[in-house]
Amino acid sequence: MNTPICDYIKKYNEENATRLHMPGHKGSSLLGLESYDITEIDGADCLYKANGIIKESEENASELFDSGATFYSCEGSSLSVRAMLYIAKAYALSKASAREPQKMYVLASRNAHTSFVSASVLLDFEVEWLYPDNANYISGKISAEKIEKALSCVDILPFAVYITSPDYLGNICNIKSIADVCKRYGIPLLVDNAHGAYLKFLKKSEHPIDQGATMCCDSAHKTLPVLTGGGYLHVSKDAPTFFKENARCALSLFGSSSPSYLILASLDNANKYINDGFSLRLADFSYVVDSLKNRLISYGYELVGDEKLKITIKAKSYGYTGYEIYDILRSRGIVCEFCDPDFIVMMLTIENKASDLDLIDATLKCIPQKSPILDTPPQILPIERVISSKEAYFSPRKIVHTNETVGKILSASVVTCPPAINIIVAGEKITQNVVDICKYYGIDSLSVIDD
After folding, report:
1. 417-433: pLDDT as tens digits
2. What gap in Å lies between CA 337 and CA 265, rounded to an integer?
3. Do residues 10 and 33 lie in contact, with contact meaning Cβ atoms separated by under 8 Å?
4. CA 62 remoteness from chain centre
5. Integer angstrom CA distances of residue 122 from 10, 11, 27, 203, 384
């Protein structure tokens, strides 16, 4: 498979032209990669009006993912999340009667990434949350039955159903069943598949587009050899033509007018990487990871999640907090993706060496098992929305110690990544349950509306 973006940049470098264009480094080697960092000069195409090398590269990606259309993002899945929601709302508005204005809202799983919440503010839509059963704020599967029940008892249907799968701990929803429900109600299914770009290339694809999603986003950089920020917006073949036709407009609305050509080249090169036997290598590596998981279980570790390339340990059942196991691994030169009081998450790809897995195995095997720690995180309960997130974000605010916030309205939520998931959303009333969860995770202050 060809690599038109990479080829163009290489050719431009070989010309050794005098660069009287951005960026300011002019190709000088300070970090060692500047000569490949260009801008939208003649022949380099334009991401949001692509009709040259970028379009050709995106068509290669679309062929690999077997989508109706695939578009590049240089700002990860966050950009694609906002674009998906813009497209879905714009489509709904195009079909709505001007004489009968309807409530614009999305039915969404509660463990949504913060980019979804910011999209609700920027696009001014409401959210009806779906709370997974017996889950913490980070994770939890949403079932087709739960979505069916929610849709069957509303007077006005949402303009989209939005789920996160895989979630941060590696749980994967039954997207096919959910998609079937959405199709019966004529509602687009949008999937945040940020952690699952590689799912397409398993022996049997588990990618949302193949499971019936209308649109989904992938963070290519999370599980493929792509520079940080590289992502995809996929539109299915069955989606209304409106979705494909408005995708670039949607991406340009929220994206930088100066996308990184280093990231674009990385996405372009990934097409060749995927095409050159990636599926076979992934199958072999998945088998090795499965073997490692089985050994960890035999040592007494409790694993959670369905993802092939993610190892999530429920630390307390082994007698430790996630922080403690993280520190032990870090002392052996192993840096994990995420930890909290309960879990530790390790993300693997086929670029990990066999010695990496051997070191994980040896280190975890040597940690002595202790009596289980029995305390668990408070389960998040449904929270009352008092005002819209948009109204809350534009209200006067003050920072208050968490212990003093019960009954107040959250004005803005600033969450760290990982996991970039909100315990409570702007516009909602803070309850004792929320305070208990915040304290459990070490959050000692909140931004509330100054009344």
Report:
1. 789 999 999 999 999 99
2. 25
3. no
4. 19
5. 39, 40, 36, 39, 21
- Predicted local confidence at residue 98, as pLDDT: 55
C-alpha distances out from residue 268 to 21, 64, 208, 309, Å: 23, 12, 22, 23
- State both tokens at 328: 């032990």
Q: Which domains are present in the chain?
A: 4-275 (3.40.640.10), 278-365 (3.90.1150.150), 389-449 (3.90.105.10)
pLDDT digits (tens, 9 = 90+) for 67-94: 999 999 999 999 999 999 999 999 999 9
Two tokens, residue 226: 């792509």
Q: How many CB atoms within 10 Å of residue 391?
A: 16
**Pick from 73, 62, 51: which is nearest to 274 by CA?**
62
* Range list of β-strands (E), 267-327: 303-304, 310-314
**CB neighbours of residue 202 within 10 Å:** 16
Does the predicted model carry a pTM greater than 0.85? yes
Side-chain-facing half-sphere of 113: CA atoms under 13 Å? 25
> Is the CB of residue 42 less than 8 Å from the CB of residue 90?
no
Per-residue burial over 314-329, b = 16 or more CB atoms within 10 Å of its CB, e = otherwise = bbbbbbbbbebbbebb
Q: Please, which residues have CB within 8 angstroms of residue 172's CB and are 6 or more apart in sequence?
A: 141, 165, 166, 196, 206, 305, 306, 307
User: Has residue 133 got a pLDDT over 80?
Assistant: no
Tokens 């897995």 sit on residue: 357
The tokens describing 322, both together, are 């996630």
**Tokens encoding 8:** 């163009």
CA distances from 31 to 37, 360, 378, 451 (A): 11, 32, 46, 50
In DSSP terms, 126 is beta-bridged to 105
Statement: residue 383 has pLDDT above 60: yes
Q: What pLDDT band is residue 97 in, cutting at 50, 70 and 90? A: low
Token readout for 227 is 């520079």
Nearest to 136 by CA among 428, 410, 376: 376
